[in-house]
Amino acid sequence: MSDQLEPAAMNDEGHRAELAAAMARWQLVADGDVRHTPSGAILFVRREAQPLVLKIVGAAGDELLASPAYEHFSGHGAVTLVAQDGRALLLERIAPGHALTQKVLDGDDDGATAVLCDVMSTLHRDAPPPAELATVEDWGADLSQDHPPDSPLPLALVSRAAAVFDELCRSQGPRVCLHGDLHHDNVLFDAGRGWLAIDPKGVIGERAYECGAFLRNPTEDAARFADPAIIDRRVRIVCERLGLDRGRVIGWCFAQAVLSAVWAQQDGRADRRGRVTAEATLPLLRKVG
Question: Rounded to an integer, what is the distance from CA 236 to the centroid of its chain?
């Protein structure tokens, strides 16, 4: 048991040291307790009267590569990155900061989908995307890697997802800077600025790609998302509000869900949403060709 606990304890101590160094460097004062997460550590802070968030991103955290996306969004639809030094990020603080997930839990799934559409509309600027960011083709490459023979993921499912992903990549419309992980837990409410996205990954692709993450969320309760009727209704709302093509949104939903399951497998994590979302999307995928 001690062997299992030591790495976490070491990570916590390392995060605390980095938080302390960043607070001294940026002249910050703690405004709460440190919260340790699977991807690092978070602390509410103040600099003079300004409320901010100090985040230490874990060594494998892809948010470390997201500074071009923060700069591109420039606070339009997303929180502002105030400063970055290595793994330390200093960010705008949102208040009251409740997540869009609560709207779904309160029974207003359609309202939550409408909010996500509004956020996407604001984020997806026509300006050229940052060249430093990865592309959706880069991300999808993992679907074509050798599939472990003992994998719980059916080979046929992965093969079809790879084919769908490849076709969608080759036929993409105009490419923009995407958030890359836009879902209910990553959209928070600010009293002054409305709903804002947090934790962008930053990836270059067509607008329809952005829908994949929120169609397999929120929570780990598959009954809230992995249902053909729910997926169909959400896709209808997205296409009506944003003018997106139904077939492409459903295709991205399916292919990304399988990709999410592949990533979970590669990381040694339990896949709690990818496969079930992919299987729930299959009947809709067949209807659109």
Answer: 21
